[in-house]
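Reply to dn_fold:

You asked what the input looked like. This is it:
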Amino acid sequence: MPFSRGAVLFKALAASLLLPITTAVSGATAANVTSSHCPAFTESSLYRTPGNTLTADPSNWVQTIRSAEPGDEVLLEDGTYTFDGYAVVFEKPLTIRSKSGRPQDVVIQGHGYGEPSEALMVMADDVHIADITVKDVHDHAISFKENFARSIVYNVDLVDIGTQHIKGSHMGPDGVIACSNIGYQNPTGTGDYNSGIDLHGAVSWTIRDNTFYNIYGDGSGCVVDRDCGTQYPGGGSAILIWNNSKDNTIERNKITESFRGISLGLSTPYSGGMVRNNVIYRGLAGKEGVNGFIEADTGISMIGAENVVVEGNTVILAGDYPGAIEVQDASGIKVVNNLISKPVWNRGNADYNGCTSQNAADCDDEAFGNTLLPPIAMQTADASSDTDNTSEISEAPPASEKDAQAILADAQPAVIPLPEESIDATSTDSEAKDLLTRINTAMAQLQQERMLATTERLKMMEERLRFKEATLELREMNVTQREAKLRKTLLTIQESINSTISADEP
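and this is what came back:
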């Protein structure tokens, strides 16, 4: 039975993804390289040859950054780094990274949630930050100001940041955020003004190969510890790009157990770009907050966006939220070849795939390769615990075998993204390596199943085409026969008329 086979593979995929991300990549416990997309920073195409190389330690790092010349590289020795004041400011093109190349070896310790502050503030073109950890900051771990261009953030761990882990305020174009881990070691952040990445006015940025985990607010509506009641309960998105942003690429990111996955526009102008080959998984319908239960939101949201391609993503969400992907006040959106556990939801005044109806039944998502998976039961245990809760996952079967076949056999298969590893293949963390193996194995199996389904569907389409051709031939034959009969009848009538006329002549 197609449903049984597909459901088992889907359950395996869900079980693999459900392993706590905080166990596998909890802040500074695991490096993020290597894979074909995430080599060591110095071996990547993003690395530039420095003018001079300076070495710093916790006692002199801020002064070393201030005294460096444009184009220099500052290597940080192993240790825990602190700073005075609101933030460490970069006012010239520089590279800063750990000497070892491992984020866990260099930890920039913030002032905690009690004091408004940032950690690293970028106010220059061509600032590159790599191979470090930043944690426990009231506001932002890394921020981009003004219109400075070509910023790079690579292989960093950003942990337990009060508001947005990375914040950009109308920064310059052509930035990259890649191969990094961003999230909360605690089950949620403090307050609801939080997100993983929040960029205003981003143009031609690339956000790729990152892991986001537990990006969730606490339901208080606070900005960390102040202005309570002013924020939407649940927090923000793992990735939010909005406010006159355009032409950005978001690809191969993994987002787990977060309130909302990827948002473009958020009721502000946004245009162009792609959201492709991302994996978004949430095994919980929501979380308990300080003021009660917080119901989780969508996987991918485009509100106010235009001309965006959303392709090849896997979005698996438990709970009752009606859309895995949602569009509203949007135009020219293409949503194709996605593997989703909820429909694409047109919330109104939106055009995706040329469809403008709010009734999902009027938009044939499967015609565009968007395959709807059978629903999953909610995970009953806390996803942030160290217990493997795979036994708590089960699929809720469709209403009938016909429905099951429609979902898993007759659906047009999507292009399944096979994400590259964001976990260090040389790590001694057995759970991290096991998580990686299980994700890739399950997704490869699912890809194979879906390729088989594609073959069967093509065969079925060929048979239907042959049947239609045969039907048309039969109809043509029937028309020819009817024409012959009609001519014969007309001839008979004409002969009868002629005979009558002849008989009546004197």
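The first helix runs from residue 2 to 18.
Hope that clears it up.
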